[in-house]
Design a protein that fits this description.
GO terms for molecular function: aspartic-type endopeptidase activity. It holds the Pfam family TAXi_N. Belongs to the peptidase A1 family. Keywords: Aspartyl protease, Disulfide bond, Hydrolase, Protease, Signal. This protein is an alpha+beta fold. It contains eight helices and 30 strands. The strands form six sheets. The protein has a six-stranded mixed beta barrel. A four-stranded antiparallel sheet has the order 17-16-23-24. 48% of the residues are buried. The structure holds 2-acetamido-2-deoxy-beta-D-glucopyranose (NAG) (3 copies). One 2-acetamido-2-deoxy-beta-D-glucopyranose (NAG) binds next to loops. One 2-acetamido-2-deoxy-beta-D-glucopyranose binds next to loops.
């Protein structure tokens, strides 16, 4: 072989291999790109299984309570005490909760504008329990009695139904708490500063009955609880006990609390459990909501178990000092940044709420989101809307689906990557809906709901004024 021919042969080999390598890299890049911006998943992973598989992560940490979905195989609530709600009922309750949050904020805004003073809640604050999906079980009194309480970052006072139910009690799973059977129970006097503190914690001026302080809370759907303001020993776990915990001992309780013995208030007010537990845990708590009703999550007080990779975004107090408000900047769908002017989010504001199910966005933002999502999902057949959810797919012919990832970017460049279970609300395989809804007006408050928070460890560091997200908090 002549040297020139050899050279050409050699060069061709070289070029060819280079070309092959280049092509390989190109292919790799596309696969990476795919994986980076899309989820490929088994359809069955969106559905709860018929048996409970408790999440093992997090259950051994200090001050940690197991979080369970009310309806599902991990729930101990029997279906004759609480009947599962239909999707329609869940969305109706969810809308009521959103309306009441809005009414509360409108009231606060008005008050701030006219008086420039500290916000107090209106007499009819219109808070609502909503569908109260998640609960934890705590011990109250001595000897302690277990009580399952709905947990709620949107309100402050913790309360439970109490015997003798002087007015009325609705049916609950566990026996109703009997103060007379607890050696550590104490009534609070009408003249105490804690009694006056009820005004900001409940939105109502406290009453007084035979020198015992009386609290009252109405909820937007005409649910309410009224009773004695009291203290007793609260047992979170065997090692985590709060003595003299302030709570409402409800004598007259009515409404949609569906089987739970009451509510645990995780708001920012000084009577919330977060403030009352501050001495022991700092004003820090975290929770993780399970991916489906057949798994469990946790609620942890204090900073134990906070993931090292948690990314924080600052809390603001522009909407009052009870709700947790955050600053949303951008939304990405399958790697595409939605063309939404930042002023859309800054005008509406946004809170994170454990009790609202579906995330609410300003209509301008929601339409950009659903438009882009639909554009990237054209290979799947759309189906009928489900109440407030208008982007629904029929996946009955699929076992595996590929869907665009959705990320929400918050102030401080903190990215929240939603898991597939945080993108969809599943009615059935033939109606799987994008779990976001638009508000009526761009000035209405946005709400990050609990579907989108699934499997994320959400950390509330109230003292440091920040909320953080870490993925993979629970299964
Ligand atoms: C708490 O106050 C109510 C109303 O005054 C009274 O009926 C009840 O016996 C009191 N309980 C205790 C333990 O003092
Ligand atoms: C969609 O809605 C139409 C009209 O209400 C109804 O006839 C049809 O059965 C619905 N389809 C599905 C898949 O639910
Ligand atoms: C599922 O596949 C069958 C058979 O190909 C087809 O007739 C039907 O329209 C498909 N249904 C959906 C919802 O895609």
């Amino acid at each position: 072989m002549a040297p020139s021919k050899f050279l050409i042969f050699f060069l061709s080999c070289f070029l060819l291999s280079f070309f092959v390598i280049a092509r390989k890299e190109l292919a790799l890049e596309t696969t990476d790109e795919q994986e980076h911006h899309y989820h490929t998943l088994q359809l069955s992973s969106l559905l709860p299984s018929s048996t409970c598989n408790p999440s093992t992560k997090g259950d051994k940490r200090k001050g940690s309570l197991e979080v369970v979905h009310k309806h599902g195989p991990c729930s101990k609530f029997s279906e004759d005490v609480i009947k599962p709600l239909t999707a329609e009922e869940i969305f109706t309750n969810d809308e009521s909760r959103v309306h009441s949050i809005r009414a509360r904020l409108t009231f606060n805004k008005g008050k701030k504008d006219t008086q420039g003073s500290k916000v107090t809640l209106p007499a009819k604050s219109g808070e609502i329990i909503g569908s109260g999906n998640y609960f934890v079980t705590v011990g109250l009194g001595t000897p302690k009695k277990d009580l399952s309480l709905t947990f709620d970052t949107g309100s402050d006072l913790t309360w439970t139904q109490c015997q003798p139910c002087a007015g009325s009690c609705y049916s609950q799973q566990e026996p109703i708490f009997a103060p007379s059977a607890s050696t550590t129970y104490k009534n609070i006097s009408c003249t105490s500063t804690e009694c006056s503190g009820l005004t900001s914690a409940t939105g109502n001026t406290p009453g007084c009955s035979s020198s015992t302080c009386v609290y009252g809370i109405q909820y937007g759907d005409r649910s309410f609880t009224v009773g004695f303001f009291a203290t007793d020993k609260l047992t979170l776990t065997s090692n985590d006990v709060i003595d003299n915990f302030y709570f409402g001992c409800g004598q007259n309780n009515q409404g949609l609390f569906s089987g739970a013995a009451g509510l645990i208030g995780l708001g920012r007010d000084k009577l919330s459990i977060v403030s009352q537990a501050a001495k022991k845990y700092g004003k820090v708590f975290s929770y993780c909501l399970p991916s489906t009703a057949s798994s469990t999550g946790y609620l942890t007080f204090g900073s134990s178990g906070v993931a090292s990779g948690v990314m924080y975004t600052p809390l603001s107090t522009s909407l009052g000092d009870s709700l947790y408000d955050l600053d949303l900047k951008y939304i990405y769908v399958g790697g595409t940044k939605l063309p939404i002017s930042p002023s859309v989010f800054s005008t509406s504001g946004m809170i994170i709420d454990s009790g609202t199910v579906i995330t609410r966005l300003p209509p301008t933002a929601y339409s950009a989101l659903s438009k882009e999502f639909r554009a990237q999902m054209t290979k799947y057949p759309l189906t009928n809307a489900s109440s407030i959810l208008d982007t629904c797919y029929d996946f009955s012919n699929y076992t595996t689906i590929t869907i665009p990832k959705i990320s929400m970017v918050w102030s401080g460049n903190t990215k929240l990557d939603l898991v597939p279970q945080g993108i969809f609300y599943v009615n059935s395989v033939s109606q799987v809906c994008l779990a976001f809804a638009g508000n009526r007006d761009d000035s209405d408050i946005g709400i990050l709901g609990n579907v989108q928070q699934k499997t994320i460890q959400v950390v509330y560091d109230v003292d440091a004024g920040k909320v953080g997200f870490a993925s993979g908090g629970c299964a």
